[in-house]
Write a structure and sequence with these properties.
Length: 84
């Protein structure tokens, strides 16, 4: 499933550059994750890099965008082919 940044975000700027898909951007008051681009780093890393670096643990699974590992991998493949 795609990830979501909660209101606990302190806008520390560490997650955005870690996202290999460019899914994270600055929102009005916190960073936000575009679920159409979030693959939880499938195809790039074993773990979600934004979750690894977040100092306040505010990046959680998004229940509104549930996806299987296979779906995340397919999304990665689609995104990769579009960026060629």
């Amino acid at each position: 499933m795609a990830l979501h940044i909660t209101d606990e975000c302190i806008s520390c700027d560490v997650c955005e550059p870690e996202c290999p898909n460019g899914a994270i951007s600055q929102g009005d008051s916190t960073y936000v994750i575009n679920p159409d681009l979030c693959t939880e780093c499938a195809g790039h890393y074993e773990t979600s890099q934004c979750v690894e670096v977040c100092p306040v643990d505010c990046i959680v699974p998004d229940p509104d965008h549930e996806e299987t590992p296979e779906q995340l991998r397919a999304k990665y493949e689609r995104i990769s082919s579009e960026n060629r």
